[in-house]
Design a protein that fits this description.
Chain A: Residues 12-22 have a biased composition (Polar residues). Chain A: Residues 612-675, 702-763 form the CBS domain. The structure holds 2 protein chains of 2 kinds. By secondary structure, chain A is mostly helical. In chain A, 58% of the residues lie in helices and 5% in strands. Classes of the chains: A mainly alpha, B mainly alpha. The interface between A and B is large, with 62 and 56 residues.
């Protein structure tokens, strides 16, 4: 076996990093366990096509880079035995045998290594089959490009759905005010599209009838006002009630923004139904309804959720992704990018958002796919042209005025304000529409009442803050982006007016003397609003790079990158000083999801032996490789609640053989009882190592579900390393050994609890496995 | 600042607007100051006249060919001052997409409301007895347990049975979700 491994290294020597090829042999051995004679031929076939082997290792080397990274960093204490490859769910054939293997239970953590290994197996199987026939060649080609096709479909669907939401929401919003009788499907702007009477002032035209006019009254007057008021209230109530009851009735998971959950799911967690069909439908319909009801919420967070739902649903068209949770998350990362791309009309911002905020495992391959997906989604939305102008977002502003260096100081100040607000309550939710702000400002600018405008803006700020806090708790699809942006824009506008007045009243001060001496309006309050919006959003979500890119893509103001960067940075600093987490991380912590943040550092000096289960005086539940009966195993499954069991040579020696998952064990035993004859309670279960499978009572061979390459560490490994391994490899559990003998298990939950304990928090707040 | 009005000039080039001329898919939109403002007539508060012109091709969408013929009498030869302040844009839209989308949205909402009403009012009456059996399945079904019964049912049952089965499964899932969200408050609280 050693010789063959060495030969494999030579055969794949052309690649950059030879992946842990030592597992390959075991794998092929086990996938053909019933006919040992054919093992050699498989290997011969494998070696006969060195080009294939090369391609294979190239494709896998990407996945393995993280592992190499870790093994370089780790201290010599760590023993990463066999990584990944030797997992014995040998691709297609085993999956067909026992249904459900490779799936996970609800609210469980996935094992990235196992899934990636499964995909590698499947890939090798396809590569091997490719020589057999033309049809297999086509299937192989389809498999190779299915990632791009899936991402393309996700982009197209996301763009279409975003167009539907934009059109539907704008129509329903205007339904509160009136109707276009000749063509009821047009909103007010579209209804007056070709009317020549339109002015900027009212936006009304003769084709568009307000509700009092529909009822036969006049447009103006107290009676008309009351009728309009009533209609507005009634429509808003109907929309909001409908949205809430649809969510409650059909898909409770559709409530909220969904980004914390998406983040957790992408970090390797299963929430069944969270990305399902019904969630998608209800989220789309509910989002249209709740946006048009005028609640203080935005559609950006839900758009990310909707795009992820689409990614999940469409990935089932491609078994490569649909049946492999780790691979599916690559599609979901790309989908999240598409969601932001259509929500803000910011494709690059979407990719960066996916990279910075939501994704956990983000190799370059996923980056390119996200880029492509965001591009396609933005293109489709632009083609649908939901607003009838060439912008794909509702609030496109265009500033082209220069800013002066001194203004960086108030911009930084805005950043500080931004996070002060965000920290008053991480769960809060702010609400004020851009249109509202604009109307308030125009009123003020028109008359002499600039001070009145400021007073109105302050009032709006307070009201929106309070309203948003309440709105975010309502169980309807709602996002936080637009309310935060609006809140920041209000604050920014106030500061901007202040600076403008300062420059106007003291034009001789040296700060302004250079640029403002001409008497032109050198300070643009609107720019302050933009920067303030970025600052508040940065304070709430703690984004930096993606936020700046989203803002300048959203507003088209490339020349304001530096002010935006300054504000975002200041906002992040102050926010991090006042409170630790952004709102999404806070939500994750509140809900107790097992999210191991890859941004935090673990700085304590504990060892693996301190964290592992079982503690002292408890026994570790293990399964022996070839001496337990079916009854023994079932008793063990009944009496303990662990999600996986180490398999050892014998209880006395405790030498580690492998690791088997509870779910797989259950499924395999149930499957064996159903399909094989002669399985009784006394049947011996054999996982590995047995050399006499021909004993008269048939024995149950379960070597397929045994993971022969569990990650192990020694008991003296520092926790820093262990936490790093969990983060970078995406482990679900690791086994702890001492002198080569099994000592205990560390699961992700143990790690999370330990981190919480070390940070003086309640470790019981980690709820799920 | 001068008063700025929007002057909408719309061009009917789309075949869709044969019957109803006011909902075309193309327009030339010009935003101009009122002529009075250009002429330094600060007292003039009257709005600039709004004009409508048919069949403006995209290359003719500019101030000279769209606005000037309409306001020539007011401008009195000061075109050189007036036109640079106008912005003309040729814009497209697609009313068919809007129509289809809005109608689909209305239909979907109505269907959902009707189905919700059915589930709330009629469904408990129809199958009261089935209710007890839901409660036993608290765990999510995985594919293995689902695969067995549904295949057997496919053999002997009809389409209706399968639909009911799917519906029951879906109802269980929703109940589970509702418990997570509204009762236990383990999510999104």
């Amino acid at each position: 076996m050693v010789d063959i491994t060495a030969g494999l290294h030579q055969a794949t020597g052309g690649s950059v990093t030879t992946p842990t090829s030592h597992g390959t042999f075991q794998l092929y051995e086990h996938s053909t366990r019933n006919s040992n004679a054919s093992t050699n031929s498989y290997i011969a076939q494998y070696f006969s096509s060195s080009a294939e082997a090369h391609a294979n290792s190239v494709s896998t080397s990407e996945d393995m880079e993280t592992i190499d990274l870790v093994s370089e960093d780790t201290e010599p204490l760590v023993t990463i035995d066999h990584v990944g490859d030797a997992v014995l769910f040998s691709g297609m054939s085993a999956d067909d045998d026992i249904p459900g293997i490779g799936q996970y239970d609800d609210f469980h953590t996935i094992d990235w290594q196992r899934d990636i290994a499964r995909d590698r197996m499947r890939h090798r199987y396809i590569v091997k089959k490719r020589q057999d026939s033309i049809w297999d060649l086509i299937k192989g080609a389809h498999d190779a490009w299915s990632g791009w096709v899936c991402v393309l479909l996700v982009g197209v669907c996301t763009g279409i759905v975003a167009g539907v939401i934009d059109i539907g929401a704008s129509w329903m919003t205007d339904l509160k005010f009136g109707i276009c009788p000749q063509a009821f499907w047009l909103n007010r702007e579209q209804c007056c599209w070709s009317d020549t009477d339109t002015t900027f002032d009212t936006g009304n035209c003769s084709q568009w009838l307000t509700w009092p006019q529909v009822l036969g009254g006049q447009r103006e007057g107290p009676g008309a006002y009351i009728i309009s008021y009533l209609f507005y209230i009634v429509w808003a109530l109907i929309f909001a009630a409908l949205s809430a009851s649809l969510v409650r009735m059909f898909a409770p998971y559709a409530c909220g923004s969904g980004i914390p959950e998406i983040k957790t799911i992408l970090s390797g967690f299963i929430i069944r139904g969270y990305l399902g069909k019904w969630t998608l439908i209800i989220k789309v319909v509910g989002l249209i309804l709740s946006v048009s009801s005028g609640l203080s919420l935005g559609k950006e967070g839900p758009m990310v959720h909707i795009a992820s739902c689409l990614g999940n649903i469409l990935s089932y068209l491609f078994p490569k992704y649909g049946r492999n949770e780790a691979k599916k998350r690559e599609i979901l990362s790309a989908a999240a990018a598409a969601g932001v791309s259509v929500a803000f009309g910011a494709p690059i911002g979407g990719v960066l958002f996916s990279l910075e905020e939501v994704s956990y495992y983000f190799p370059l391959k996923t980056l390119w796919r996200s880029f492509f997906c965001a591009l396609i989604a933005a293109f489709i939305l632009r083609s649908i042209n939901p607003f009838g102008n060439e912008h794909s977002v509702l609030f496109f502003v265009e500033y082209n005025k220069p800013w002066i260096f001194f203004e960086l100081i108030p911009f930084v100040g805005l950043g500080i304000i931004g996070c002060g607000i965000s920290n008053s309550d991480p769960l809060c939710d702010y609400n004020r529409n851009f249109t509202d702000v604009n109307s308030a400002i125009e009123k003020a600018a028109a008359g002499p009442g600039v001070y009145r405008a400021i007073w109105l803006l302050v009032l709006a700020l307070i009201l929106k803050l309070v309203m948003t806090i309440f709105t975010f708790g309502i169980k309807v699809p709602c996002g936080l982006f637009i309310p935060s942006l609006a809140l920041g824009a209000i604050a920014g506008r106030i500061v901007g007016i202040g600076v403008e007045q300062l420059a106007y009243n003291y034009p001789k001060v040296w700060l302004f003397s250079g640029e403002c001496s001409t008497g032109d309006d050198c300070i643009t309050p609107g720019l302050y609003a933009m920067v303030g919006a970025a600052a508040v959003l940065g304070g709430v979500t703690r984004m930096t790079v993606s936020l700046v890119v989203i803002m300048f893509e959203l507003t088209g103001g490339v020349r304001y990158i530096v002010p935006l960067m300054a504000a975002a940075m200041a906002s992040k600093w102050v926010g991090d000083a006042l409170g630790r987490q952004g709102i999404y991380d806070a939500h994750i912590a509140l809900n107790g999801y097992p999210f191991l943040d890859s941004k935090d550092e673990f700085q304590h000096t504990s060892l693996a032996a301190d964290v592992m289960q079982p503690k002292r005086n408890e026994t570790l539940s293990v399964i022996t490789q070839d001496s337990m009966t079916v009854d023994d195993v079932e008793t063990l499954l009944k009496e303990t609640e662990h999600n996986g069991y180490p398999v050892v040579v014998s209880k006395e020696s405790q030498y580690l053989v492998g690791f088997v998952l509870r779910r797989d064990l259950n499924l395999a035993i149930a499957n064996a009882r159903r399909t094989m004859e002669g399985i009784t309670g006394q049947t011996v279960v054999i996982f590995a190592g047995s050399n006499q499978p021909l004993s008269p009572p048939p024995c149950l061979m379960l070597n397929r579900i045994l993971d022969m390459a569990p990650i192990t560490v020694t008991d003296q490994t520092p926790m820093e390393t262990v936490v790093d391994m969990f983060r970078k490899l995406g482990l679900r559990q690791t086994l702890v050994t001492h002198n080569g003998r099994l000592l205990g298990v560390i699961t992700k939950k143990d790690v999370l609890r330990h981190v919480k304990q070390m940070d003086n928090e309640d470790p019981n707040s980690v709820l799920f496995n | 600042m001068t008063l700025r009005f929007i002057v909408l000039i719309c061009a009917a080039t789309c075949a869709l607007a044969v019957s109803d001329h006011s909902y075309e898919d193309n327009r030339c939109k010009c935003v101009c100051p009122s002529p009075a403002a250009v002429l330094n007539d600060t007292a003039a508060a009257d709005r600039s006249p709004f004009m409508k012109s048919a069949n403006v091709p995209p290359n003719k969408c500019n101030c000279e060919s769209v606005i000037l013929p309409r306001v020539a009498d007011q401008i009195k030869g000061r075109e050189q001052e007036f036109c640079p302040r106008c912005e003309c844009k040729y814009e497209n839209r697609n009313t068919t997409i809007i129509k289809v989308v809005v109608i689909i949205v209305i239909w979907v909402i109505m269907l959902l409301v009707v189905y919700m009403g059915f589930l709330i009012c009629l469904d408990p009456l129809i199958n009261k007895r089935a209710k007890a059996s839901y409660q036993e399945h608290t765990n999510e079904d995985d594919e293995s347990t689902l695969g067995g019964p549904s295949q057997q049912m496919g053999a002997r049952g009809n389409v209706l049975n399968r639909v009911t089965h799917q519906q029951d499964k879906w109802k269980r899932q929703v109940r589970e979700q509702r418990r997570n969200i509204y009762d236990r408050h383990t999510m999104l609280n």
